[in-house]
Structure formats: structure tokens, C-alpha cells
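Fold it.
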Amino acid sequence: MPTQETIYEVADRVATITLNRPDKLNAWTATMEAEVRSAVEEAERDENVRVIVLTGAGRGFCAGADMSLLSAVATQGLDKDVTRRIQSGGAPQEGLRPDFQRKLSYFLGVAKPVIAAINGPTVGLGLVIALYCDLRWAAESARFSTTFAQRGLIAEYGIAWMLPRIVGLPDAIDLLLSARHINASEALGLRLVNRVFPQEGFAATIHEHAVQLASSVSPRSLGVIKRQVYTGIFQTLAESFDLSVVEMVASLRSEDFKEGVAHFLEKRAPKFSGR
């Protein structure tokens, strides 16, 4: 898959998508957006891939929208192309909630876990992207800011919905209104990130943990549980309970259930098929 601003690699059942504009701290562009979506779709189709990792080249994860675009809009105003890109999503997918078919929110509808490997500064649109990943694992050098209010902008692309559900309403309001920068330690305390790892060897450490996830649990279970969790946000307890009963019956008929019992009883590593 030829790319200009990303790198796509698959190893050990882990697909790694690297934002590759290190001289710009991987600032987000229309080209990068299209390449990331194409890579995620490729990883989802590939039966050899069980976990997706999104990270940045060099010393940053993503510094937000490319400032050249923002500067052009500030001086020349909006044109039809920029407006279209702001509003665009993907082609409608049958059977998937509309909530998971918007620009960037499509990460939530991917049937495989998506890990943000946050190796450095993550601000603005870069933070939105990280929030749509299922897990956020950060290096000690990571820094975070919503930054929107400092640019005369608003809470973009659903971050006003996502951020309170991750860190809670009071801290979300603080981070959005102040646009203050926080380090990895504070981000961990706020539960903005799940884990923090040493800077040295960060990429290798993330790959090791991703491989563990890809090999130790049922990929079928991962996909179903992810769908249950995100769908559950919109459900009553009764609806969530009823869905779990349907999924439980289906899981008891699956090959991965049989393997899950067999590898435990036989005291060996699992060989899940995803079926």
C-alpha cells in the first residue's frame, strides 16, 4: 500500500500505523487522514491482524491540524474544499451505529482493538484521535492539550462527548476551557491514558504488550466485547443485559470458546481462530 505520510507494517499479528511527518510533529493533513483510514480498513480486513497500534514517527504523536491549513483559513476564509473536509465521513455501513460512522469516530466501530502509542506531544486534533482509540499507552515524554480555545476554535469532532466519558465532567471542562498542557503523569492520574512507560525502548515495549494481547485472548471475544462496551453507552441496563445474553449464547457455540476451555485444561498456550 503506497503512502506519503504514514507507514503501515504488520508483524506478530499486530498492525502498526505510524504517522510519518516527524519534522512537523506529525501534524494532521487530508492526505494523512485518508491514509490512516485506508490502513485501518486494511488491518480490519486482514485475518492475520488482531491488534492495531497507532503511533507517531520521531518525537511526537500528533501536533494537531497542520498550521499551514489553519493559517490559510485565518487569512483567506473558508472555501468549499475545507468545508467539505470538515464535514466528510465515510461511506455508510449497514448494521453499524451512525455514531461510529463519523469522521474519526469510525475507530469505535472497528472490530479489533486500537491502541494509541503516544510517544510525545498530543494536542488538539491529535488528542481527539487518541481519545477514539480503545487504549492509550503513553511514553514518559508525552504531553497533552486540547488547545482549541487558544486558537479561537471549539471542541472539535466529538471531543466534548468523548472527553467527559473518559476523565469525568469537571476535568474535561478544565482541560477544554483552559487548554492547559499536562504531562504523562497527570494524564495517568486523570485516566486520560491507561498506562505510562519509560521513553527508552517505548516502541518495542508497546509492540510486546500488543503481541501479548493479540496472542493470549480470543479475537472474537475482543470484537464482541468492544461492540458491547461502546453500544452500551447508548443503552439502558436492561438492553445491555439482553444483548449480553444473546452474545453469550453465540459465544458458547464458537470455536474460540472450545479452544478457551481446552487450552486451560491442557495447560498450554491458546490457539484461537477468531471463529
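The chain has two domains: 6-214, 218-265.
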